[in-house]
Amino acid sequence: MGGGRVTVNSQLELRNLAKTFQNGGTVRRVLDNISLTVKKGQFVSIVGPSGSGKSTLFHVIGGLTEPTSGQVIMDGKDVTGTKGLISYMPQQPALLPWRTIEDNVILAREVAGLPRQESIEMAREWLGKVGLQGYEHAYPHVLSGGMQQRVAFLRALLSPQEYMCLDEPFGSLDALTRYDMQKWLTSIWETQKRSVLFVTHSIEEALFLSDTIYVFSNKPTNVLKKITVPFSRPRAEEVMEMPVFHELKREIYQLLKREQERSAESTGTKEEFSHAAPY
Amino acid sequence: MTNRTWFQKFWPPTAAILLLLVVWQLAVTIWAVPAWMLPSPLQIVSEGISSMPRMWMHTAFTIRMTLIGYAIGAVVGFVLSFVLHMLPRIKTAFYPLLILSQNIPIIALAPLLMIWFGFGLLPKMIVITLVCFFPIAVATLDGFAQTDPVMMNYMKMIGASRRQIFFKLELPHAIPYLFSGLKISATYSVMGAVISEWLGSDKGIGVYMLLAKSGFRTDRVFVAIFIIVFLSLLLFGCIILLERVCTRWKPKV
Q1: What's the pTM?
Q2: Which residues in chain A land under pLDDT 50?
Q3: What is the ipTM of this complex?
Q4: How many whole angstroms separate alpha carbon B41 and alpha carbon A20?
């Protein structure tokens, strides 16, 4: 997997991204000057309050929405507005119910135009590795939420693009399953070393999984802080008990809390999109 | 489905039908209703058996008409829904017209069709097609429109083309909807065929019915009715079987 050449420029870079939506007379600023970098082989997380424009950000990265200003740079090339360059795992598994598990796993490869036989072989091999052997020909509805997310992850992992965007993939799982999935994801990722941009609301999740964390503000969204996570790899769950883990956790928590209070003050309401300022 | 659940599901309607037939038979016998007014079920059955060879000729004609008309209607309905789905502006313009077309009584339109297209097969095919295409077009259009937005977002994020989105997501999603349209049309199609035969034909169950009516052969009218019901159910059943094959992925409820 991966397979691109490693050069100085091997990274996904968002450069000064801004996005405003115009709706009748009101102008809504959603993204405000976002810059971040995912180096090849890095696991980068975004932590932010809910409704901080992360889906808009993903739509911009995926080429579905043109940014108002700024660029998406991939391996040194401006790819702003180009579709099909990233691999994606959404919050809901979004498995197609009429496809068997293995056919769901190969969907992204199929869309990319890769030969079916090879994809199926990879899918079967990987389904075995993630404990889904025997489910190759089953339909998604027989799988539990956690199992479906594993399938959705495999679909993203086997997809040929280097950069993976994971949009709160464990957000809809129960606490225990979520915890298991986090451990599972680290172990898989540590052997694969794909470049990951991971969005989450959970500070612990971000600290446990990532090399770098970007803390996002409320709308209009910008980067409050970039944090480099000091834990070595392979990472065990013991890091969650280290003092540094708790310090970092507190630091991010304070940042987010202050941000929440600031935006509540500035708008005086809890309405999510209320700070849409007319020009 | 096991035999047991099948039995549990089907005995109540079967019993209800049998009960109805028994009441009918008894009522006709007890009050001595004349056969030209209401024949008894047994009389209908015996008439059905004795006129089997002639009936078969008419039935075969109607079956052929129904199947051809139904097939044309299904294709027209599906193609129409595809075109309207792909061209949203055309859809906005023509959708009300589509609804309007269903408010034209077919019985009023049919004589016009004969004036325009004569007594051949063409006007009859048009009648059946008109009756059949609408439920299929509307149901399939619904299926396309109600594609899961989460899956749609996923397909777009991974860079799927319009064509890939249609064939990998929208079309399979619309298949169950297409089948609900096909099922409704299946029962309409036989009725459409009979109506088209009333308007000028020398063969078919519709013709047989007209002749029986003018000769006060009420038993034969009932034979025709039973055949029409049977044909509708048969076609309906075939579509259900086809649906089971095409939507194996659905969770069994």
Answers
A1: 0.82
A2: 1-6, 269-279
A3: 0.84
A4: 75
Put simply, the chain A residues between 199 and 258 with a CB less than 8 A from any chain B CB are: none
Query: What is the third-level CATH fold of B49-246?
Result: MetI-like fold (1.10.3720)
Residue type, B124: K
What CATH number corresponds to the domain at position A239?
A: 3.40.50.300
Buried/exposed A112-149: b ≥16 CB within 10 Å, e otherwise? bebeeeebbebbbebbeeeebeebbeebbeebebbbbb
Contacts of A108 in chain B (CB under 8 A): 158
Facing residues of A226 across strands?
A214
Beta bridge partners of A200: A47
Q: Which chain B residues are closer than 8 Å to A62 by Cβ?
A: 156-157, 159
Q: What is the pLDDT along chain B (253 residues), one digit of tens a residue?
A: 566 777 888 888 889 999 999 999 999 999 988 888 889 898 898 888 998 888 899 999 999 999 999 999 999 999 999 999 999 999 999 888 888 888 888 888 888 888 898 888 888 889 899 889 999 999 999 999 999 999 999 999 999 999 999 999 999 999 999 999 999 999 889 999 998 888 778 889 999 999 988 988 888 999 999 999 999 999 999 999 999 998 888 877 6
Q: With b meaning 16 or more CB within 10 Å and e meaning fewer, what string describes B94-128?
A: beeebeeeeeeebeebbeebbeeeeeeeebbbbbb
Domain annotation covers residue A184: no
Q: Which residues pair with A216 in a beta bridge?
A: A223
A91 in Cβ contact with A167 (< 8 Å): yes
Cβ–Cβ contact B64 with A under 8 A? no
Are B159 and A112 in contact (CB < 8 Å)?
yes
**For chain B, domain boundaries:** 49-246
Nearest to B153 among A90, A110, A165 (CB): A90
- Per the omega criterion (within 30 degrees of 0), is the bond before B88 cis? no
